[in-house]
Amino acid sequence: MLNTMLQAATGMAQFGGAVGAGLAAIGAGIGIGLIGKGAVESIARQPEASGDIRANMILTAALIEGVALFAVIAGLLAVLSK
Amino acid sequence: MLNTMLQAATGMAQFGGAVGAGLAAIGAGIGIGLIGKGAVESIARQPEASGDIRANMILTAALIEGVALFAVIAGLLAVLSK
Amino acid sequence: MLNTMLQAATGMAQFGGAVGAGLAAIGAGIGIGLIGKGAVESIARQPEASGDIRANMILTAALIEGVALFAVIAGLLAVLSK
């Protein structure tokens, strides 16, 4: 009985881990999407500033990527817990 | 009885895994969609900058794709857990 | 009683699988919708760049399609679990 309740808890952990990883991907998707949209539109408006635009685009996208990957790893660890 | 509660736990894990994978796909869809929309509109405004625009488009889309695929894999692991 | 709880667990997994597949379809729908909208509007504004626009449209739409199909497969596996 005790062992079974432990298994039920593991099921809940996997549930939360997968949902959390999905939520993190939503954040990264919307955030980096906004950055990428702004960057390509800015290059179209000012093509000679494309190097500068790309540098700033990568910088902010990497910041989002860092947090999101961290959260996905946390979700993955919860999924793999037993 | 014990075995059945174990099955219930697995059901919750599969529930969360599928929902999490769907959430990750929402993030990738909105994010890459924004980038793709911005890119084609930018090429229409400045066709001679299309190479530069495409490079930045692929770069940010790949960043989103990476996180989203990672989260979908986490969901898939939860679905396949037993 | 035991058998019934097992059925309930399977029901949760299938419920989540269907919802997750639906969420993935939301993501793909919004994302590819944004790209398609931008593409046809861009071709209307700059018809001579239509080849370039179509190439970029297909590229980003394929990226979204990849993640979304993966998530739908995860949902399908949860639905088919027993």
From TrEMBL, chains A, B, C:
Membrane topology, from the record: Multi-pass membrane protein
Keyword Transmembrane: yes
Entry's localization field: Cell membrane
Transmembrane segments: 12-36, 57-80
Feature type site, description Reversibly protonated during proton transport: E65
UniProt entry keywords in alphabetical sequence: ATP synthesis, Cell membrane, CF(0), Hydrogen ion transport, Ion transport, Lipid-binding, Membrane, Transmembrane, Transmembrane helix, Transport
Lineage per the UniProt record: Bacteria, Pseudomonadati, Bacteroidota, Chitinophagia, Chitinophagales
A cellular component term, taken from the record's GO annotations: proton-transporting ATP synthase complex
Cited NCBIfam families: ATP_synt_c (TIGR01260)
Protein name as it appears in the record: ATP synthase subunit c
V-ATPase proteolipid subunit C-like domain: residues covered: 15-77
Protein origin, superkingdom: Bacteria
